[in-house]
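input
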Amino acid sequence: MSRQGRVLVAMSGGVDSSVAALLLHEEGFEVVGVTMKTWDYADTSGGKRVTGCCDLDSIHDARQLAVDLGFQHIILDLREEFGNSIIENFVDEYMAGRTPNPCVLCNTFIKWEALLKRADMMDCELIATGHYANVREENGRHIVSMGLDSAKDQSYVLWGVDRESLARTRFPVGGFHKSEIRELIRRSGYPALASKSESYEICFIPDNDYRGFLKRREPEATKALANGVLMSSSGEVLGEHDGYPFFTVGQRKGLGIATGEPLYVTRIEPGTNTVVLGPKEELNKTRMWVRAPKFQKIDRLDGELEALVKVRYKDKGTPATIRMDDERVLVEFHAQVAGIAPGQSAVFYDGKDVLGGGFIDRE
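output
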């Protein structure tokens, strides 16, 4: 047994998780590396050549680092759980006219649950990942706070992880900038890892073509939605579309029509297979509803609170007043916010700490 204890580290084969494992190893932890296999490229890529996290090359990179540093590495097959929970939800959300964020569900219901279960089986007290975030304790509560590198901060996708799981979680790279992480792995003798490109695609759609993915998963349902209506906010029919699941609020490109002014998707109406288009200013909102809220820093939302609210991953956030109304949170922004898409996550912050979050709902 090491002087620090045993820690199970999620290793995708990328630079961030590799440095997370390296740092914990150098701190004296007994590291066990685990690479989670969540899907098959052949099933999701439509025959296109793709690369991304957890492909064979990435698995090799993760294992090679483990071999070099002398710690155990295992592969955990989560394809069944991932397919049942994440991929089915992804498809269902688009078919309901919403825009999902599968990374949030994956972190909450797949990665942490699977990691903690395997950690218990292997007598690991802690788990760790390469997320750019931090965990801190306040009044006995473990909460997520923003990573040091604001450009890479990933606290947004972690609002659904419960406090009991966070108590056993470490984010070793959360106190670094990305440039420092690349330099650290380069100095450690892994120049190929240091220069490895990042994947910004959804992991099970590595070709970044979610429309093709939906067509392959739901061929009959998506085909039946062809010849839908593109409509202006004033009710004028502007053209036809191939199906509302292929659009998201705020979208400008790929609308399939040419007009004298830029138009954006402002609303999706699944019941009538209608996509509503309007000028950019029609995207601006001052309020929204959030369903299925979950809180980290507080036990529940009583009365009103002032918070910074992010409506997408790269959003800088907008000050707002939040309060519970029955089972949903009403968010009233202090300034207009553009492109609020039902299905995306809304995350509430108190300074750098995550108060909680939920899923953006329709009015």
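quick obs: The domain at 283-361 is CATH 2.40.30.10 (Elongation Factor Tu (Ef-tu); domain 3).
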